[in-house]
From TrEMBL:
Residues 391-639 form the ABC transporter domain. It is found in: Membrane. The keyword Metal-binding does not apply. It is a multi-pass membrane protein. It comes from Candidimonas humi. This is ABC transporter ATP-binding protein/permease. The chain crosses the membrane at residues 12-33, 59-84, 96-114, 171-194, 214-233, 299-317. One of its GO terms (molecular function) is ATP binding. Residues 59-358 form the ABC transmembrane type-1 domain. Keywords: ATP-binding, Cell membrane, Membrane, Nucleotide-binding, Transmembrane, Transmembrane helix, Transport. It comes from the Bacteria.
Amino acid sequence: MNWNHELLLSALWVLKAYAITVVLAVAAIWGLARYTVWGRQFWNLSGAYFMTRRGWRPLVVLAFILLLTLIAVRLDVLFSSWYNSMYTSLQKLDEAGFWFAMVLFAILATVHVVRSLIEFYVQQAFTIHWRVWLNERMLSRWIDGQTYYKTQYLGRPVDNPDQRIQQDVNVFVTSSLTLSMGVINALVSTYAFTLILWNLSGPLAVMGVEVPRAMVFLVFIYVIVATVLAIRIGRPLISLNFLNERFNADYRYALVRLREYAESVAFYAGEKVEGALLRSRFAQVIANSWAIVYRSLKFLGFNFTVTQAAVVFPFIIQAQRFFTKQISLGDLIQTAQAFGRLQDNLSFFRNAYDSFAAYRATLDRLTGFTTAIALAQELPAPDVRADGGRVALDLLTVRRPDRQPLLERVSLEVEPHAPLLIRGASGSGKTTLLRAIAGLWPYCEGGIIRPENDVLFLSQKPYLPLGSLREALYYPGHPPYLASPAVLDVNSSKRLQEDTVTRTRNAGQNLDALLAAAGRSEAISPATAGADDAARQVLRQVQLGHLVDQLDQSADWGRILSLGEQQRLAFGRLLLARPVAAFLDEATSALDEGLEEAMYRLAREQLPDTILVSVGHRSTLLAFHPRCLSIKGGGAWELT
């Protein structure tokens, strides 16, 4: 190799390889997306990200990553030739040639280090941007149209959606780039090192027949046979990795539920039952882990055997030519390295089969998730329409999922001055009727008339979001003098990133304390005193005055407040929101009759024009509801 012209030759090689690789890659992607299941799965998940109508940036960055990958291949070829030159100079005792090789190594090593660092940064930036896009796409589809709620009505509800959004998206993005660039590197390197080995290998007599360039044919036969056997051994890893993700997610979900319902479990003294459930789910994780270990032992044992046998193979084949001085020591070393690299490249699919198995399992999980979202969005929806501020039912029939009627052909209208109470036996369909009015229950026919906006539903157990008490009070809106939640999230993320970089420069940091400090809510001064006074006044009106000084304190208020306090906080929401219509589903079940009367009286005094519909069992509620819809069962009903 003439090192004086190698810069120009390498540039031409990279350009040619780049052009050919781009054409073949585009053809391969098209073929995989059209003719393979997992290719279609990938394209359905991320095809839109690479569409030029979104912008050229993802394609430009991906093209640059491809260029860096091909430069890495060329550097490997140059290092292979460098080894030949260096060992040949040692064999010939050529001191000048040896020191020239050392200078050359310094140049090649510098280029390699710079290229590696640039590649690391570009790949990480690319995967982060891709992950942000895919996370937003998944999250939007999961949240929009209340799909997160509707999937429970599917025949096979999707399991662990939290893991699929948080973990599987990250694995999918990272593995997609790593495996795709690994395949390209392996294929291009295979071509490059095949040429090197072709020039270095000689004839070999096999059963009396002389085979020219025999080593090239031997390495291809060796690896192809080994790859076929490895795939047969490793195929069960696909299903085992899929089950590993699912069992771990189920175990984690059970642990989260125990924390969420800790008080209820403690009152029941249900530790033994919960412990048995947790141990049962953990046993599934361990059993599957052992299955993966045993299968991986077979798979890795075969791979290690094949790889170790390949180490001495080229030396054995070329030894005779070396001892007869047909080739130099440098040629022998380069032959061994080229053979090893070619064997590694051809073995890429065999060695990375477990990675492909895990990637395929991730593809299946994300595809199952998107399929569940699509099916949920195709479920029938109630005919909910707006007609000013009216709340009315027009021949509404509500059924159970098995098509049995709960209510048949209900027609009524609720006026602001005449709140409606819905009563009936447990399981008769009271809450289901509210679900239908909210547009959540798919099994109904007829018309539902209610305002499109300015409607508030209060459930028996109010939802309190993570954050400050003030944010919980204004939920699902936000305090009028605060930035929108999306802006707050971005600012918090940037602040956390800056704080983390600053505070972790020294070793030994307490990371839990660091994150807690970075994520702690800061008191935000109100733009106007009136807005702050409104929240404080409402807390006092719903008899939560002892919480006034904690309005801007961030905590898990769903755990701190009792159910009765949470229900009074929900009435505070009602007073602040001042909706056109409000629907209360046993919203005072945890209150005594005195507090219940105080809350309803407060609502009627403060919101005289709000249309009010309540669900409840207590006869004391009749005093606040001039009209009552009694659900008799079997579709029968009575309005009194």
